[in-house]
Design brief:
22% strand, D-Maltodextrin-Binding Protein, domain 2, 6 helices, 2 domains, 241 residues
């Protein structure tokens, strides 16, 4: 039997990229930039709990993860990105609501809850709403959870938390490097972006306008040259006698 005609090979699809982020991180701007620069590479994003912000990397669920520091950096590449504003969260009607911001030193008599012991920010806010104590959270997390039974105010004199981008050592590649560059604010024309290093089609050379190009064909002269052309008036008068 004759061999079946081989169908032309279709280009292999680009590998996608997956990243996780903890509550309070808003990755929309990075997703939009990715879609503009890398429309052929699928991008998947999902939220992870703080206690799973590293496990998503180790179990292969994500290629990169936006984490809240501090974390165990063993086997990780970590790029700190920005600091978060801390806030104090109290039950609705608490006296902190009359201030624009509150100093930690002024709350020395208050009972502060341990957010981790409460089972995380969401559960901690429910306990705060019951009147059992106050909690300190990143402003972005408190806004994200948006418990209507609590009130929050910026807190001074308290250490802030920090957001960073993390990925496993040895997993770097053009797709991962492209995303890292976008997060770090590199432009599409940056020489450090893998996408800018791809070979672009060469344009046809422009014609040399300085005389180096092909010469125009000579045009046949239709009239005999005028012998008096270029002579001054004086020379014409001199010839008349």
């Amino acid at each position: 039997m004759p061999d079946a005609e081989e169908s032309p090979e279709s280009p292999e699809p680009q590998p996608g990229l997956r990243f996780a982020y903890v509550a309070g991180v808003t990755p929309g701007k990075w997703i939009r930039r990715w879609e503009q620069r890398m429309p052929d590479v699928p991008l998947e994003a999902f939220m992870s709990d703080d206690d799973a912000q590293l496990s998503v990397l180790r179990d292969g669920s994500a290629d990169l993860s936006f984490v809240r520091l501090p974390v165990d950096r063993e086997g990780l590449n970590v790029i700190p990105l920005y600091e978060e504003q801390p806030v104090v969260v109290a039950p609705k009607g608490h006296e902190i609501s009359v201030f624009e911001e509150v100093a930690l030193a002024d709350l020395a008599e208050e009972n502060f809850l341990d957010v981790d012991e409460m089972g995380g920010p969401d559960m901690a806010l429910q306990v705060v709403a019951s009147g059992a104590g106050l909690a300190i959270l990143p402003m972005s997390v408190a806004r994200h959870l948006n418990n209507k039974e609590t009130v929050m105010r910026p807190l001074t004199g308290a250490p802030g938390s920090q957001i960073a981008l993390a990925w496993l050592v040895g997993t770097e590649g053009p797709v991962v490097e492209e995303f890292i560059g976008i997060v770090r604010g590199r432009t599409a024309q940056s020489s450090r972006q893998p996408s800018s290093q791809q070979e672009k089609p060469k344009k046809a050379p422009k014609p040399d306008r300085r005389g180096g190009g092909p010469k125009k064909p000579a045009v046949a002269q239709r009239y005999a040259p005028n012998p008096d052309k270029g002579r001054g008036k004086g020379s014409r008068k001199k010839g008349k006698r």
